[in-house]
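Below is how a single chain appears once it has passed through the pipeline. First comes the sequence as given, then the structure the pipeline wrote out for it. We keep one example in the README because the format questions we get most often are answered faster by looking than by reading.
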Amino acid sequence: MFSVRGLGDRYNATTFNGFAVPSEDPEYKNISLDFFGTDIIQSVGVNKAFNAGGISDVGGATIDIVSKELIGSGNLNIGLSGGLNTQTVTADFLKQDGVNLLGFTTTTEPADENNWGFKNKLDPSKQSLQINRSYSISGGKRFHIGKDRNPLSFFLTAGHTTDYQFTDETIRNTTTSGTIYKDMTGKKYTENISQLALANVDYDMQNRHHMSYNFMMIHANVQSVGDYTGKNSIFSDDYENQGFTRRQQANDNLLIVNQLMTNWGLTKTLSLDAGASYNIVKGNEPDRRINNITKAEEGYTLLRGNSQQRYFSTLDEDDINVKAGLIYRLKDNVEEISNIRLGYTGRFVDDNFKATEYNLTVGHASSIPSLDNFSLDDYYNQQNLSSGWFTVQKNIDKYSVAKNIHSAYAEATYQFTPRWIVNVGMKYDNVDIQVDYNVNKGGSEGSNTIQKDFFLPSLNLKYNLSEKHSLRLGASKTYTLPQAKEISPYRYVGVNFNSQGNANLKPSDNYNVDLKWDFNPTPTELISLTAFYKLIKNPISRIEVASAGGYLSYENIADKATVAGVEVEVRKNLFVRPLSSAANGMNKLSFGLNGSYIYTNAKMPLATVTTGSQLEGAAPWIANFDLSHNFTKGNHSFINTLVFNYVSDKIYTIGTQGYQDIIEQGMMTLDFVSQAKLNKYVSLTLKARNLLNPSYKLSRKANESGEKVVLSDYKKGIISVWECRAHFKPDNEIRLLTNNESKMKRLFVTL
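Resulting structure:
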């Protein structure tokens, strides 16, 4: 997930065609940007300064994705790609049972506890030669309707992707003093399968009225088998807590977006924007299988107690958004961009979560001579259940979250002179959140309500020092709401950490100030310098709680937190050499650089370090660099792009009650993309990602010795991708974007 100005997923917001859009993964607030390639995106706005007409639940930036519409009379594009991961391609790969080729999972649960009604096997299957692949098709057509020849266009794109990942992992955990009670090495086999479909219908009436309908479907399945061996406090003390854990997990998520948008030209100066969206999220984690095998006198044996589990969970989310706004255009005798806007927006979200846990308690455990070729299905079956070798106990946890937000806003934009542009606004939000829960095997039952009125002023100024130089000032108030998973006290069992929400969380108030200088030497070049300051009241952060078994939770960590920093961005052409008029082309070398220093501090009374802590996820130093060469001649082009990224160490979780902070190690990444357009019909692309293959590490210092203990360590591998695209009836207005552009490194950015 993306981070802006040291603020991660919780503090950012994503919109799709101006409407709030939920994440396809219930674990996150924002939708993954990896789904949006050049077939999907028409433009992307990164708005770091806020206005009254925008999203209020934001503190870092609002990312507005505008879906592609048909350009020109019609076109058809077909794409095919294949790829390899250096750590995966030749590995003996394990796949869990119950997931088909399209990534849809078997969700059937037993009818009762006395019959073995699980449809999926416990023993994974094996495969070799894992090749990443994807397929895509997009196209559209424009028609003209009636005597006025009003344009009606259709655009459709669809794609399927499958990729594999294998990681050698280190998993550790410690007490507050630093004593290691878990020390395991693991092999994790992951397969990602996804489908995306986008459809757009667009209709213009007499150049005054406009209607459009957008549909988007994202299905994403992540399945994994993790085998871990080593020390864990749950294993037998008689054999130094040695054993084996197998965790099989599939997250099957579906997002469906429906949007209807209209614009009505009422008079020459007055227009109405109105629309609605209905989003559906289905988050399934069907049949998560956890089995623990402890060392015994002769080999191994199944661990007794509640250590053998199967788990089914579903999250159903309905998300309705409505908006209506009047725009009155003012005469400013300059660029005619002045206007007054009045409007209403509403968002109504219902989350319903249900989890069913089956404990497969061992009564009679036979010995397992070796971990090489054992079978769990030989033990867990109907015959052994009927014989009393094990029992099945069922527990159901539930929670629901209803969120209703009513908003009214008024804002005015006026250009006083060719140099001065002012935007001022006020927004009122009425927030009502109701949480009801009965979780943790009945140990946590209750409800809570968040009801609050927000008055949110905003001011944005732009002063053009000259044609090439401008200054921008932004000041605003926004807020951050806790997410459904953060305010529902359901305890989730992870590989290394358990996590649990906190029903008593309060929203955060964000006060934002930005000052930015822009210099455009040429239309394609930029030098920018930004200073910003944020005061966050009642900031929310992930914390580590000292208790039996330990777990991660969420807390309003302090009365206030400070975020301040500077950003610099450079976009420069090293040379631009047009070819001869007969050749009709260009030879261009350019580079881009953006970097930031971010200071964050919150004095948290519960923290182990009470003098002050950085905010969760806030890396002090961030740098991005790209170098791109573009050679174009007629219908041919050759583009090569190198992208380098660096992020420094940052806090993953704030430690409390004796725990030190968990630190996420900084890293450097390097990607390369080469794209050749052979003619106006065919293009080829080679991508090499994660060339440095850095380690992803979490660590924590021990209180007594101060020694750093690595809690998690793995590498993702180097990935290569080959892609071929065919373009039929291509329009001159359609251009191929570089990979860097498709990843939204430098699309439309405002203060």
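Residues 730-751 have pLDDT under 50 and may be disordered.

See the next section for the split statistics.
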